[in-house]
Each structure stands twice: as structure tokens, then as C-alpha cells.
Design goal:
This protein is α+β, with helices and mostly antiparallel strands and 754 residues long. Helix content is 47%, strand content 14%. Helix 15 (512-537) packs across helix 16, helix 20 packs antiparallel against helix 21 and helix 21 (672-705) runs antiparallel to helix 22.
């Protein structure tokens, strides 16, 4: 082992742990998590206490979209939140927004200002006006805009999102900053961020859902009026790796690209299946505990933490929330985890595939719809076969994903996620929906106009459709309820009891764009279902149960190709998907192009106008440009690693072998082993040199002749495969070259030193 690797590894092993005590009351009693929850959040309850009732009522009307805030109300809220924040140590405020970078952005402004006095001097005061609360002005030309903004037209606006609560975050030296969740638009009003389209899509789903509910549940039939609002709910499971920060600092590829561009798996990694749900390492548990403490105070409802399948891989998951708030909280979780891991000498990796050959990381988006009365519209209930409301919403989702599967793929495609999809429990690029045996039987029976069949099950189970009970035949164990559906880790879009789990979303990306496009497709499909019901009911006041069943049957038949219960990795599925006319797009740039194709573009700009045509075109160009830039950064980094680390180590090792062979021959000993290693080393060095030259020529051609759309395809079709070919030879050299010559920390150290 090289001396630098050795000293860094010893430092990692001997580093003292960091301890952060959980908060206690004045009496010394440990506080419950519920007692610190929302401690740093300016909640609606806090606003109600700080404002006069008429002013608070106006704020609620604005929050519900019924009227705009007056200047007086904005000033009252800004004064109240400033006092609240400064009483807790805040010195600055920032509009916190989501540019199209899969991250967040912020610019801090001080509450400190100056006011002239009668004597012509200036007095320092703390102030925060309503206009400062409502909007700010970041430079719009310095963020991705897809050509909508340029250097000479740089003005943009961040605007307070009143539906997402303001909060404070601690900084160094005991100070804090007030964060104002915001949307981000251009001078002309175009959406430049991820949140504005998400909010538009949530409103579209709500409107379409309410129209359908009003048709099938009119007040004349029920004692309650139909729902006035339907909320898109989201719970985002976040997977990530934690590795030692010292070892991370010795890997330029991890620092620059977020993933290892070379490296062999250790003999033992995840094949024994002992890491998943295993005992959490002490350093990791310390990170998790401190992170949860901070996130509880910020109102993030984290519920679960555990080891994931791969070594050094972990997951946290929250309770579901309203979608836009859930996205805010997911991005906040990533930010806090990054900072807390740093304090513990660890590095959080959110790249979808930081280590080749083992599980990558996803962001499983658990998506559903809920009425303002708290009813989950995707809850099948005890008898899903007669729950027509559930069936209508279910087939609407099936129809949406079936019609726009290519758009769903585009929403999760990237230079990083392309390494993850299709292996190691990650879903494949073919988008399909898994429902489970029982729901499939319900839909098949409706399609075929027959009773539901009895299931053939092992004799130790008692089963009834609409609710399953497992009798374990052990008297000391209780009977348990079994979910309506099993799990299918190879399914990109799976029904999991009362929600859909969009498993294909990448761990590094913001959930905003995938959820936005899903919402658009579902909103359009719900309107299609509503139109079919109106036609089916004819002159009747509302559709009968038979009318509803007929519509369900039509959509079951129409969307049947998207349903798949088997192994998404099998070659048979590729052939079957082709026969079903399901898209199988393996290139991210090709997937991005689906956004601008006829039916998909019409959906997003006309039928459910979440984007204007310039906004959609800009997003396409941003995605293509980002792909090209990501591939350029990775390919240049790989070339740097080979020149700076791999070749010097291999040359030195080969020189030593050559000298050893000569010395052995001088004493009449045949250097068979040395010659064999020399030949292997030389062969791979020749392979590296040849492929590296081709890669560097491709990089030069890309920089000279490609940019944007053209460059993205060159990057995928030429640069990407050459990087794999270079890596093949480099990884072979890593296995041959003596460890003391190899300067880069190996997978053994990176994955097994936490």
C-alpha cells in the first residue's frame, strides 16, 4: 500500500467519534422528537399568533389561491417572521429556490440596514419589508436557462412560495439564516426552476381529480359535498453512500465526478447479502442521529433509517407530505446530510452509481392522491373489485403511464442514472407497472366479465381477496395481514398497497421534474376518464355503477400492455415489451428528445399546459447540454487519472519486474513468473495507451465540433463506450500492479472503512 493511502487509512480508523447529545428539558428529562419537531419552522400556527385575525384570514385566502397578498399583509408577515427569526439568532435571510441543477440556490442578505437621522447621520436598524419577503433578484443568466436568458438580459426573480413554510438553519458561530422557500422565474415570467412547473402540475391534478369526483360522488347521492381539493402526496426514500472523507480526498474522480471512474470490487462486497438491514456502524449511526435531530427541528418527518444492500450504502425515508413540501424536504435532507457527514469525517455520495458492480442508489418516489377530507384515492379498501372510485383512479394512472412511458423515462434519464438502470435491483429502462397478483386478477376479471378466481396458495396460508391473512402455524405468533401486492424491485413503477412507487428516479436528482411529468400525464388521463364517464351516462344525472364499470373495463383493455409482473431484467421481457410497443430507449439524449415529440409536447404545452413551448424547449436543451458537460468532465477526469496515477504506477511496476527478470537470468534462474507478469502488464499498458488516445481524440472532436444536442449524442455514442474500454484495461492493471505502487484508494478501503 502506498504511504499516503496507508496514513490516510490509519487516520480514518483512529479518528475519534463525534458526540451530539439529544436535547433535554430544564429538569434534565430527554425531550421527545415531537417536542423539538418544527422548532426552527415558522408554522401557520406561529403566523396566526403573530397576526391580527383579519390579516391572518387574508393570508389564508392567498395561500389557498383565492386572492393576492396586500402590501399591508405582506409587511405584517415580514415583521413577524423577522422578529421570530432574530429572537432565535438569525442575522440574514435568503430566498431558497431550485434552479435546474438538481440542487438548491441561495443568496444571503442581512437584516441590518441604515436609516438617516435628523442630524444627517445614519442609524443602524434591523428591518425586513414585505417587498423583501415577496421577491428577490438573482442573476438569471448565471443559471441554466436553455437560451431563454443571456448575459445582456440577466434579470430574474425569486418569489415566496407561501405554501411551503419558512425556516431557519444554524450556521457557524451560533448565527442562523432565515430561509424563504421560493419559485424562480425570468424577467418575462418564464419558469427557470423546478418548483414552478411542479406547483402548476399539482394544481392540474387537483382540478382534474375534483371534476371526476364531482361526477361520481355528487352531493345528491352522498351526505357530504364532493372534495374541493385533491393533493398530490409524496414520500421520497433517499439512498446514499457514506465513505471516509480522507480516502475520498485521495480519489479525484469521486471529488470531481461523484463516482469512481476506475476500480475493482473487493473479494467480499454485497454477495453474502449481510449488509442489508444489518447493524449500523457507530460512525454512521452518529451521523444519522445528528442529521435527524436537525431535520426534526426543520419539520422534516423522517421516519426510517437502515443499511442498504451494498457495503457503505444507507437509506432514510420520511412520512409522505404534500408533493411540493416533500420535494423541499428531500433537498433539505440531502443538504443537511452532506453537512453533518462532513462534521463526522465522512462524505455522503448521492451519485446513482458511485461504485461499479454493486447496487446503485435511487430516490424512490411514493406517489398518491389525497382529498381535502384525508381520503387516499389509491386505497383499494377491503374489496377493490367493487370500489369503483379506486378503480377509476387506478386505470387513469395506468393509462397515463402507458401513453407517456417515454416521457417518464426522459424525466429520470441522466449521465449519472444511466449507470444504475437495469441491474442490481434498479429498474430497467423499459417503463412498466407492477400491480401484484390480486389487483391483476381484479382487472382481468373485469376485462373478461367473469367472477374473481380463487387463488392457489400453500396450505399454511389462508387467503381471501380484498385482504390476506397469514397463519404461521406457530401458536406464539399472531396471524398477520398480508399486503395486496408483493414487491418487484425490477419494476420502474410499482403499486405498493395504497400508492405508486416510482423507483426509477435517481438518487442525485431533484424529484420535482419526474413528479411534474407524472402529474401532467395523470391529470390528462383523469380528464379522459371523466369524458368517457360523461359519454357513458348519457342523459342520466350521474353515471351508474354499471357505467363506471364499463369505463373501467375500457381503460383496463387500453392500458393492459403497461402491466408486467415478471423479471424486468430478463431478455424475454425485452422481446415482450417490443411486441407490446413499449419504448425501450437506452440512450439518455434519445430519451430527452421524447419531450418534444408530438403527443408528449402537446400534453405538456397544450392539453395540460404546465410549460410554454419556450419553457419546454429550454428544458430539453438544458438536459442535452448538461449530459454533454457531464460526459466531458468525466472523460477528462479519467484521462487525468490514467496519466497522473495509473501509468506511472504501472511503468514503475514493469520496470521493477524487468530488473528482477534480468537479475534472475544473471544467476541462471528462469524468470517465468516475472516474464508472465511483464507480458500481462505490457499488454494492458498497450491497451490503455491505444484506447486513451482514441478517447482523447474523441474529447477533442467533441469540444471542437459538438455542443448542445449534437454534442450529447457524440458523448453518448463515442465518448461513453471509449471510457468503458479504457477502464477495462486500467482495472486489469490494478489487479496486477503491486499494491505499494497504486496511489488511489481501492474499493476495499472506500467501501469497508466506515
Amino acid at each position: 500500500m502506498s504511504q499516503e493511502r496507508k496514513s490516510t487509512l490509519l487516520e480514518a480508523v483512529n479518528r475519534p467519534g463525534r458526540t451530539v447529545p439529544f436535547p433535554r428539558s430544564e429538569s434534565g428529562k430527554a425531550l421527545y422528537p415531537s417536542e423539538i419537531y418544527n422548532e426552527y419552522v415558522f408554522t401557520t400556527k406561529d403566523i396566526s399568533k403573530a397576526l391580527p385575525k383579519p390579516v391572518f384570514a387574508e393570508f389564508l385566502k392567498q395561500k389557498r389561491g383565492h386572492q393576492n397578498l396586500s402590501k399591508a399583509t405582506a409587511d405584517a408577515i415580514s415583521h413577524a417572521v423577522r422578529v421570530w427569526a432574530m429572537d432565535r439568532g438569525a442575522t440574514h435571510f435568503t430566498h431558497w429556490f431550485q434552479p435546474q441543477t438538481d440542487s438548491t440556490a441561495e443568496k444571503h442578505d442581512s437584516f441590518l440596514t441604515f436609516q438617516s437621522t435628523l442630524g444627517g447621520e445614519y442609524a443602524a436598524i434591523d428591518a425586513f419589508s414585505g417587498s423583501q419577503l415577496l421577491q428577490s433578484e438573482p442573476d438569471a443568466s448565471s443559471f441554466p436557462s436553455g437560451g431563454m436568458r443571456s448575459t445582456f438580459e440577466a434579470r430574474g426573480y425569486t418569489v415566496w412560495d407561501t405554501c411551503s413554510p419558512m425556516f431557519i438553519q444554524p450556521g457557524p458561530n451560533g448565527t442562523k439564516v432565515l430561509y424563504i422557500p421560493s419559485v424562480y422565474i425570468s424577467y418575462n415570467g418564464e419558469a427557470l426552476d423546478e418548483k414552478t412547473p411542479l406547483l402548476r402540475s399539482c394544481a392540474a391534478v387537483s382540478k382534474a381529480s375534483v371534476e371526476l369526483l364531482s361526477l361520481i360522488s355528487p352531493r345528491s347521492v352522498t351526505s357530504q359535498s364532493p372534495a374541493a381539493q385533491v393533493t398530490t402526496t409524496l414520500g421520497t426514500e433517499q439512498e446514499f453512500f457514506l465513505i471516509d472523507r480522507g480516502l475520498y480526498s485521495l480519489r479525484p474522480d469521486l471529488k470531481i465526478c461523484g463516482r469512481t471512474l476506475l476500480g475493482n470490487l473487493p473479494p467480499r462486497h454485497q454477495q453474502l447479502e449481510d449488509h442489508y438491514f444489518g447493524n449500523m456502524p457507530s460512525r454512521v449511526l452518529a451521523v444519522m442521529s445528528e442529521m435527524e435531530l436537525e431535520l426534526y427541528r426543520l419539520g422534516v418527518p423522517l421516519k426510517t433509517r437502515h443499511n442498504e444492500v451494498a457495503p457503505a450504502q444507507f437509506e432514510v425515508a420520511p412520512i409522505f407530505e404534500e408533493a411540493a413540501v416533500a420535494v423541499d424536504h428531500n433537498l433539505l435532507t440531502m443538504e443537511v446530510l452532506h453537512k453533518v457527514a462532513h462534521r463526522h469525517g465522512l462524505k455522503a455520495l448521492f451519485h446513482e452509481k458511485p461504485f461499479a458492480g454493486i447496487n446503485g442508489s435511487g430516490k424512490h418516489c411514493n406517489w398518491s392522491l389525497s382529498t381535502d377530507r384525508g381520503e387516499n384515492l389509491l386505497d383499494p379498501s377491503v374489496k377493490p373489485e367493487t370500489n369503483y372510485r379506486f378503480l377509476l383512479f387506478l386505470v387513469a394512472v395506468l393509462n397515463a403511464v402507458h401513453k407517456h412511458a417515454a416521457v417518464m423515462l426522459a424525466s429520470i434519464s441522466s449521465a449519472s442514472n444511466q449507470h444504475r438502470l437495469g441491474a442490481h435491483e434498479a429498474p430497467p429502462a423499459i417503463v412498466s407497472i407492477f400491480l401484484g397478483t390480486q389487483l391483476n386478477e381484479v382487472l382481468d376479471s373485469i376485462e373478461e366479465k367473469r367472477p374473481i378466481r380463487n387463488f392457489s396458495v400453500p396450505q399454511f396460508q389462508t387467503v381471501k381477496l380484498g385482504g390476506t391473512v397469514l397463519d404461521l402455524k406457530v401458536s406464539t405468533l399472531p396471524h398477520i395481514e398480508r399486503d395486496l401486492t408483493d414487491r418487484n424491485r425490477t419494476s420502474p413503477f410499482a403499486f405498493t398497497g395504497n400508492k405508486f412507487e416510482f423507483r426509477a428516479v435517481g438518487s442525485k436528482q431533484s424529484p420535482s421534474f419526474p413528479v411534474t411529468l407524472l402529474n401532467c400525464a395523470v391529470a390528462d388521463s383523469l380528464r379522459e376518464v371523466t369524458a368517457a364517464l360523461i359519454e357513458a351516462k348519457g342523459d342520466k344525472e350521474f353515471p351508474s355503477t354499471q357505467d363506471q364499470l364499463n369505463v373501467v373495463r375500457d381503460f383496463v383493455i387500453k392500458s393492459k400492455p403497461i402491466r408486467f409482473e415478471g423479471d424486468g431484467y430478463s431478455s424475454d421481457w425485452v422481446e415482450a415489451a417490443k411486441k407490446r410497443s413499449l419504448p425501450n430507449i437506452l440512450s439518455a439524449p434519445e430519451a430527452f428528445g421524447e419531450l418534444l415529440k408530438g403527443p408528449h409536447k402537446e400534453l405538456l404545452t397544450k392539453r395540460v399546459p404546465i410549460f410554454s413551448e419556450p419553457e419546454l424547449n429550454s428544458r430539453y436543451h438544458i438536459m442535452m447540454e448538461r449530459y454533454e458537460k457531464d460526459m466531458l468532465v468525466e472523460s477528462k477526469t479519467l484521462a487525468l487519472l490514467v496519466h497522473s496515477h495509473v501509468l506511472p504506477a504501472a511503468f514503475e511496476y514493469r520496470r521493477l519486474l524487468g530488473e528482477s527478470a534480468v537479475a534472475l537470468k544473471a544467476v541462471s534462474v528462469t524468470p517465468t513468473a516475472e516474464i508472465n507478469l511483464l507480458e500481462q502488464t505490457s499488454a494492458h499498458l498497450a491497451g490503455v495507451s491505444e484506447k486513451l488516445k482514441q478517447l482523447e481524440d474523441a474529447i477533442a472532436n467533441l469540444e471542437e465540433g459538438g455542443h448542445g444536442v449534437k454534442g450529447a449524442f457524440i458523448a453518448h455514442d463515442v465518448v461513453y463506450p471509449l471510457m468503458d474500454e479504457v477502464r477495462t484495461h486500467v482495472d486489469a492493471l490494478e489487479a496486477i500492479v503491486g499494491d505499494k505502487f497504486w496511489t488511489l484508494p481501492k474499493y476495499t478501503e472506500l467501501l469497508l472503512t466506515v
